[in-house]
Amino acid sequence: MKHIIKPAEGKLGILLPGLGAVATTLIAGVESVKKGLSEPVGSLTQMGTIRLGKRTENRKPKIKDFVPLAGLNDIVWGGWDVYSDNVYEAATKAAVLERHHIEAVKEELEKIVPMKAAFDRSYAKNLDGTHVKTGTRYELAQQLMEDITNFKEQNGLDRVVIVWCASTEVYNEPIDIHNSLEAFEEALKNDDKRIAPSMLYAYAALKLGVPFANGAPNLTVDIPAMVELAKQTQTPIAGKDFKTGQTLMKTILAPGLAIRALGVKGWFSTNILGNRDGLVLDDPENFKTKEVSKESVLTDILNAQDSPELYGDLFHKIRINYYPPHGDNKESWDNIDIFGWLGYKMQIKINFLCRDSILAAPIVLDLALFSDFAKRAGMSGIQEWLSFYLKSPQTAPGLPAENDVFKQLIKLENTLRYLMGEDLITHLGLDYYEELVESNY
Amino acid sequence: MKHIIKPAEGKLGILLPGLGAVATTLIAGVESVKKGLSEPVGSLTQMGTIRLGKRTENRKPKIKDFVPLAGLNDIVWGGWDVYSDNVYEAATKAAVLERHHIEAVKEELEKIVPMKAAFDRSYAKNLDGTHVKTGTRYELAQQLMEDITNFKEQNGLDRVVIVWCASTEVYNEPIDIHNSLEAFEEALKNDDKRIAPSMLYAYAALKLGVPFANGAPNLTVDIPAMVELAKQTQTPIAGKDFKTGQTLMKTILAPGLAIRALGVKGWFSTNILGNRDGLVLDDPENFKTKEVSKESVLTDILNAQDSPELYGDLFHKIRINYYPPHGDNKESWDNIDIFGWLGYKMQIKINFLCRDSILAAPIVLDLALFSDFAKRAGMSGIQEWLSFYLKSPQTAPGLPAENDVFKQLIKLENTLRYLMGEDLITHLGLDYYEELVESNY
Amino acid sequence: MKHIIKPAEGKLGILLPGLGAVATTLIAGVESVKKGLSEPVGSLTQMGTIRLGKRTENRKPKIKDFVPLAGLNDIVWGGWDVYSDNVYEAATKAAVLERHHIEAVKEELEKIVPMKAAFDRSYAKNLDGTHVKTGTRYELAQQLMEDITNFKEQNGLDRVVIVWCASTEVYNEPIDIHNSLEAFEEALKNDDKRIAPSMLYAYAALKLGVPFANGAPNLTVDIPAMVELAKQTQTPIAGKDFKTGQTLMKTILAPGLAIRALGVKGWFSTNILGNRDGLVLDDPENFKTKEVSKESVLTDILNAQDSPELYGDLFHKIRINYYPPHGDNKESWDNIDIFGWLGYKMQIKINFLCRDSILAAPIVLDLALFSDFAKRAGMSGIQEWLSFYLKSPQTAPGLPAENDVFKQLIKLENTLRYLMGEDLITHLGLDYYEELVESNY
Amino acid sequence: MKHIIKPAEGKLGILLPGLGAVATTLIAGVESVKKGLSEPVGSLTQMGTIRLGKRTENRKPKIKDFVPLAGLNDIVWGGWDVYSDNVYEAATKAAVLERHHIEAVKEELEKIVPMKAAFDRSYAKNLDGTHVKTGTRYELAQQLMEDITNFKEQNGLDRVVIVWCASTEVYNEPIDIHNSLEAFEEALKNDDKRIAPSMLYAYAALKLGVPFANGAPNLTVDIPAMVELAKQTQTPIAGKDFKTGQTLMKTILAPGLAIRALGVKGWFSTNILGNRDGLVLDDPENFKTKEVSKESVLTDILNAQDSPELYGDLFHKIRINYYPPHGDNKESWDNIDIFGWLGYKMQIKINFLCRDSILAAPIVLDLALFSDFAKRAGMSGIQEWLSFYLKSPQTAPGLPAENDVFKQLIKLENTLRYLMGEDLITHLGLDYYEELVESNY
């Protein structure tokens, strides 16, 4: 039975808080793809296929041909930033893309000018931008809602989604003011500085029924108040922290060790990067937010409670180093101390010469398109099936997160199959062999 | 509904053609575990857990507590080899395990003496053993059947299984004599040298209804004649080539790239190892058998037909180098040239300091115990659900193999759940959120 | 006392057999440097400094300011190739340099058109160029001499030097026809195919008193006949095989292990590269020439005769793999098994993401300028002080080569100091401390 | 002319402040070597050879056969520690050596019991030992002198040397009380806590004319007061910081890049180790001492002043991470961003799986034997020729240190040749070729 999904008619606005390396790489890339100059590699919605039915049916449509998503030509870009550079200027400074890629879409990029950001420097000390709004927390939230409404009207949009692409904020744990919508709104009125700027964007979005996905490890929508608001306004939310680079590798490799019942004694991960993200994370308070997000991944996949003999002694250490010579070309090195049969030791070393924004950009696109799809499918609140893209997935209260990227994908794919009325896939496949003697039952 | 499975009563004989590094590491290990001196790390049947029911139920028994498998204390070992060393001597020469691990089970190992092998040096030129049977192909097969029958009787065994642990044979493609049981038995009578020695073991086993799993990349049971025989005698078979080391890493990492729609342009894999396996593979004809097995893995996971933009240009090269300084401590180095958003290039380098036999030993154990379990569950012919352990999985004719190790695990786990009457797991999990408005349907 | 050296007046012709990746990278680079667009990094003659006198004097001129070398503006380029592309076209195809670097000197490069090569495909099977001379070996040598003479006259040159930049020829050992100038010239007249094409260039050069340096591992000038001719015509020669990439790293690292008396048990070196050099070396016969050159390096530095306890068991294996995805971006991976105190094992892994031609180009420049300098300084025959640049240094008969790159540099520097009348440096430096009591003597 | 050197008669006491991993590995090793069970690999004095005369003479004696050093059988061990374990117990806890290596010399090791240490926890917060002396700084120095004198008498020793093997102290810069012997002794009397514990050992040693070498990066003997005292009592001193592991690799590799005029833009070095040294360095103040010592190395070898185009922008970052799973098996990973011809970028990655104490132990032995030799040769004060073993070499005031390990070796070897009346080696070697025409002069 197929679920009822509203068609993707009209234009879709994608608003991005933070028009830095990731956002500009995304926007320039989509514009380049629209002109037929490049391929949107890394985007599941654009390039990925999905198996339907039995293996022997050989049905593997592209996801975008299977599910009614907004088309790239229907996207309109906007955003906020603490620097006033337009997207052409910002992309040039970010220096992720080569000159010729940026120049080819210069006209399109120049038109996109950031709105003033709702910013509080105590949440990101290493940033010095001045293109910022003024006012109390409450006033800032109101201004953001106006920004969204104006953006929608001025561009004649049918729908809008927001994906947080700005820097990591300093570490915070959920406290009383986050625990209910009422408490949150009360704090907002009191201009409570414990409300992080990112929460203002999330609040403004959800109030207007605009889906919100969070690409940084800040709490943002991962507090009861926001979940409550999301349900109230029938709005999908997803978070948190884009899963790229080293953590992506971890959620690929760690399940591979776990399924083979190989033990892990130590996992040392270091990163060197020289972009603005690296600069922000050079501050210990901001790093802590990231660290917590990165660490939880292993704790879940290599489960010490279920398998104390294998993972009870795991020592996990993560380092991020600001290293200007590499720019956006983040590089990670992992040393993994594993043990096998009778406890014999082995080692795995992984050196990933990656590109941070190149890996993140297609994730933003997918989160935007899937969030919009979820809204049209009548889904609201936490979208756990999007945890495939996220380092630290938000789940229902008390529900353990699934960090294994392969299980996350099955969840995503089976969700799509379910909504589109296709059979779920279990990989059982015993019927190909007919070897089960009936009388055995 | 639970399937009917005969209980694992009595003793289980495990017969191993090839009592070299892998087999002796397995035997010494199990004996060590039985004495409480070590843990059978890497063995899913012994250490692995399986999730049952919903995530919130938190049911995760050990597999051996969920499925009726033979216990370690019920195992009796035997085997064949071209060298006459008993298992204590062979383990000492193999030098995989440290001195103290071998000495602690010396008494048990010394008792296990190889039977003479059915060997033909034209299938493994770099081996010079002389502990071999004589006779025509037909006579050799008869002798092997006698060996199996005697072993069972003399040890008072209830059941026997065989796992091929000997060297890789030279490359061969299936020809007419492999195409039907009749043609095979005709060739056998004619002493046709195109019947590989490994096929004689498989034939002898299947004739007697003894499950046979193949740990090398030789054809062996992967020919129509053997499948026919297996069905005839209601015997499970599984093949081929233990998935360890570099290929294991490949089937972990490659799916991780594919699910993210990242492109792969080149994959260079080199190995250095100094054990007998390395010596045999130093011969180009034997290496070819291995190469074909190793190469197919990527072709399947990174599917050029489905995603020509991502995998159409993939250049894949594999090298194995005999390097005595490392002994059994196989080491692999992979360079993977990937590309992401707009085609931007990135690189992954993996250096795996592994131990070949340490990774293989628990696989032999699991294949033996699961094959015996399959027999008792009334399953026969190809056991695709055991492809989790194999580099080059044997499937039903025309059915594409599944090489993604994560899908292979789901297949294995859902097979166990199915046989034991538990719900299959789909990772859908939308019910935790209740967010689907009923009227939407 | 200062040696008498003729000044570097007038123009210097540099003729390069083989206008491929290395040569075109050199030429485009020098032209770019002349326009002030780039720096000649990697060239000792252009960027290097030399310490003179005592440490406390702090005298460290650039080498080009210390020794009278030809200036870059006085260089005129020429060469031969089996393909007829001009240097602009060849540089474009080689794809070593980025587009903008080549375009900036397009005009200069287009003017340089190769003369037809003296070629014999049985010496390089994987090359298929047809821009070749015809005739007997003798006639080819005569034609090459005419080429050189014409090039000198037409360009109004004062001096000419030749550096072999073409591919590696198939493996050959010195035989009777190489043993004396008389035997060589007799063989030449007989059109003896055992005379390699590269020897024809060397012969033509030396006959005309033109210095010749050999950048490939072929014998070429490393035979008694050529040494005899060089002495006769007062011409410097140098060879063989440019020391770049992995071997450079080896001659840096191996001395470092040796001076600390650390043992080495195994050294595995693999390379992946996708340029024409990689294609030629994919042929086993050509690879052998390279292998011999690469292997001798370690044998000399890690001396098993002097230190059998440390290097007596060294297993050294080198592999070169043709891997198109990398193009000219050669990459090497080394695993080195070392041992220290009481024999405890340690490992070093080196992954060098290098660029073959980028490392080779400045070596060609230095060899050309130093060879010309040597000629003007009245030096002739083997120039061992240039072994700093070479994998397999040519020495006087019976004299063991020095492969340690640091000792090679001291030899080079002390040669320059000696010729320029400066004190040789011994690094003794006890005089800074005056601690030696006179009466002790 | 040969220098007069007193013979190595009688017994030599080697006293080691800090009987931890390094010292116990040294002692157990020498005892093992004395019994013929192991080789003293890594020790230049025991295993190294030295070339004498011309290359063609082929004279390469072992250093210990060339220079009159104390023999291993004449060594008597002693030391101080903040823990009271005897050397057998301490070696067992350090777990550097395998069980059987320690057991084989158990009897010898048990006899060596530490004297109480002169300790001040504010100099090493992460250490909690209580086997310590009490008293003012002055009294502690007196007690140490008594310890040395008693040790010498009770063991009937001819000579004693001291090598500092204890932990790194917190960072300190030289101040007024270090500037002259007078000021230092005044401070001593005033119980000035700015005198580091290590200085008390050095003072006690030098007062008694006992040579002192410093294996940690603390100031210790690297202050004018100690140099003054050393000259006064005719005593050799050497410092500071044993050059092992990553820094050894740096002083091997960096000169290799510099001599080829290759640029370096970034050098990132990370270390993971789990021994007591790692624990002490986990404190930022102690790490700083180490960091300063490690950083200076590159600044000197890759000289930005001499070659601003190549090294002016070098970004150098060093990290040390406490990582218990590795124990004493320190592992380093370096990423080096270099550039060549026209500025093209290349990368070198080095992964060194080393063993900290295995590399350090032979250095302690060599420093001890060479310091004793220097004393007998009438040398006093700073022994710069021993900088070969040290990360941060102490030199005469105003004299720039030489950090290139290859130049350091030449200095060491030429010092030995000089003292033994052999020709210094310059590697000129032009005489092998006779190619210089006399009339050219």
From TrEMBL, chains A, B, C, D:
The keyword Membrane applies. Keywords: Membrane, Transmembrane, Transmembrane helix. InterPro entries: Myo-inos-1-P_Synthase, Myo-inos-1-P_Synthase_GAPDH, NAD(P)-bd_dom_sf. Pfam families: Inos-1-P_synth, NAD_binding_5. One of its GO terms (molecular function) is inositol-3-phosphate synthase activity. GO terms for biological process: inositol biosynthetic process; phospholipid biosynthetic process. The keyword Transmembrane helix applies. Residues 245-357 form the Myo-inositol-1-phosphate synthase GAPDH-like domain. The chain crosses the membrane at residues 12-30. It comes from the Bacteria. Belongs to the myo-inositol 1-phosphate synthase family. This is Inositol-3-phosphate synthase. It comes from Mucilaginibacter limnophilus. The lineage of its organism: Bacteria, Pseudomonadati, Bacteroidota, Sphingobacteriia, Sphingobacteriales.
